[in-house]
Write a structure and sequence with these properties.
Helices cover 79% and strands 0% of the residues. By secondary structure, it is an all-alpha fold. It has one domain (2-116). Helix 1 (2-25) runs antiparallel to helix 3 and helix 5 runs antiparallel to helix 6. The longest helix is centred in the N-terminal third of the chain and has 24 residues, at 2-25. It is globular. The chain starts with a helix and ends in a 5-residue tail after the last helix.
């Protein structure tokens, strides 16, 4: 159990790191996701990508993994409006089945729980 928790922590960290890099490689994808009421969308995309990458890396190091877990949770909460925006506007994402857009919402809760598992030493 402890070994799998250890491995899953690195999986989560790597997933966040890769997802964060994606913000810089293909920012146009994230522009569609960004709710229109938020100002400076490209800046927010780069900031969130930077945070995802850094927090993912931090999760992989023992000294910073606890704070990284809390930061990942905060980030997941902060980007939740984008997931709601996607679910409410499936016409913007015709290539993604509508059910997938709605499944992303509870999946966000699973990611929060996954990160929460590493908030204790």
């Amino acid at each position: 159990m402890i070994r799998s928790k250890f491995i899953l922590k690195y999986v989560l960290g790597i997933l966040f790191f890769i997802a964060g890099i994606g913000h810089f490689v293909k920012p146009e994808i994230y522009l569609k996701i960004m709710p229109p009421y938020l100002p400076f969308p490209i800046l927010l995309i780069y900031i969130s990508g930077f945070c995802e990458s850094i927090f993912g890396l931090m999760l992989c190091f023992h000294k910073t993994s606890r704070i990284a877990s809390w930061l990942i949770i905060a980030l997941l909460i902060a980007i939740f409006p984008a997931n709601i925006h996607m679910a409410l506007h499936p016409e913007i994402f015709p290539q993604i089945p509508q059910i997938v857009l709605w499944i992303r919402l509870p999946f966000q809760g699973l990611l929060i729980f996954w990160a929460y598992c590493y908030t204790k030493n």
